[in-house]
Sequence to fold (84 residues):
Amino acid sequence: MQSQNPLIADFVKLANSAAGTFAGMTREAREGARERMKEAMGGLDFVGREEFDAVKAMAAKAREENEALQVRIAALEAKLTATP
Fold:
């Protein structure tokens, strides 16, 4: 059974309008925040996982080569100082 009181009907209309306005404001705020994040992140350079893994492997190989060269240099220096 519906109420015939115009005051209640007006209040319901007002509440529905407020809810719709609030939902619209929420949606607009979310879209604005998403757009600002896209703009902020757009200037950053991100690398893909494959590229990161490739550079990581290159660095590990360079580190191993460096250690091998250090051993070789130490052996050559020892040989150089050992011979009169």
